[in-house]
Each structure stands twice: as structure tokens, then as C-alpha cells.
Amino acid sequence: MPKGSPELVAARRAEIVEACARLYDSLPFGDITIGMIGAGTTLSRASVYNYFRTKEEIFLALLGREYEAWTADLDALAARPVPREEFADAFAAVLQKRGRLLKLVSMNLYDMEAGSSVEELTEFKRRYNASIRAVLGVLRAHFPASMEEDGQEFVYSFFPFLFGVYPYTSVTPKQAEAMRRAGVAYREYSPREIVRLAVEKLTAALPR
């Protein structure tokens, strides 16, 4: 167990996670090491292990932080009135800000979970579950006449869809060239555009 007050432990964990976030904005998951993360903090490489056992646990905490931020945005959306014809875009705009979340879930979720302790995984699942509840809260707020099963169907359709948003909206020049050579029909979408289209279809029949 790391030494220090709960506040100190939380602050140092947050510092480590933020260093990881800065690296991940410019480097792929596989290229990032514990040493590189530690170098971006006030801690030594060895000290990082007092707070996280593996690189995967650090990334899982980062993803949990991203889910928390998305949850807060969803709660704010649930609290304000939105015309039905604007709901899908408003929902999509909230997710547009969470590019790092979309990147993490599309590429590295399995590795992060497999390489983490059950304690870290449980903490992550709490944050993930809070996002699910927040999505259901948004639907209840804006489609109050819908049924509980409608919300569950939305969740089981939308959350798997999230895994594909980043790859379909963040195409590299090399990928674009390969698709051109292979004759793959591709239309460029932003995360907001592709999420809006999905949410429009998923909510089209919901009573308001």
C-alpha cells in the first residue's frame, strides 16, 4: 500500500495519470513505458509502482477519468431542455469532446483490463457504470414517456457502437491511401457527425 494520507495518494495517482494522458496524446499505447510515465511526474520510476502495479492499470485509471468527465457532461445535458429535433446533435456534441475516451476504448480496453488487478478493474467498472446510468438519465430526462426497456436497448446498442467511433473518424494518411488502393468506399465523418446519425436512429421511435 502506498504511504501517506488518502489525499496525498489520490494526488500522486492523479499526477501519474495526467503524465500518461500527455504521452498518449502523441504516442501509441505500445510505445509508452512506466519509465516514460514516471519521467513526466515528480516521482521516480520505482515510486510509480507504489501507486499502480502495471502500465495497464495507469491507462485504465485514465479511461476511468475520461468516463467521469463524460458522465458529468451527460448529467448537465439531462438537466437542460433540448428540442427533440436537436437531441441527437446535443448528445453527439457531448461525446465529441471525449476524443481520448473514444481512442482508448477502440484500441486498448481488452489489454488494460487483462493487465489490471481486480481492485483497479472494479474501480474502473464503477466509473463505467456511472456513465451508463448517466446515459439512461439523459434518456429519461428527454424521453420521459419511453419505457425502461427502451433505455436498456439504447445502452446495449450504443455502447458497443462506441468501440468503432474512433477508427471510423480518425483515419491516418497511410490508412486513407491503403483504402484508396483497395477501392474501399470511405466518407470522412467527425465523431459528432457519426454519433448524431446513430443516436437519431436509436431514438427515432422513442415517445416523448
Describe the protein in words.
This is TetR family transcriptional regulator. Residues 10-70 form the HTH tetR-type domain. By secondary structure, the chain is mainly α. The protein is 73% helix and 0% strand. The chain contains eleven helices and no strands. Helix 5 (84-96) packs antiparallel against helix 11 (191-203). The radius of gyration is 19 Å and the shape is globular. The N and C termini lie far apart (50 Å). 25% of the residues are buried. The mean pLDDT is 95.
Throw out a few tags for this protein.
208 residues, mainly alpha, 11 helices, globular, DNA-binding transcription factor activity, HTH-type_TetR-like_transc_reg
What proportion of the residues form beta strands (DSSP E)? under 5%
Mean pLDDT: 95
Secondary-structure element string: HHHHHHHHHHH
Determine the N-to-C terminus distance: 50 Å
> What characterizes the major β-sheet?
none
Instruction: Give me the oligomer status.
Output: single chain
User: What general form does the structure show?
Assistant: globular
- Overall helicity: over 70%
Structural class: mainly alpha
Total number of strands = 0
Q: pLDDT under 50 segments (min length 5)?
A: none
The number of helical elements comes to 11
Radius of gyration: 19 Å
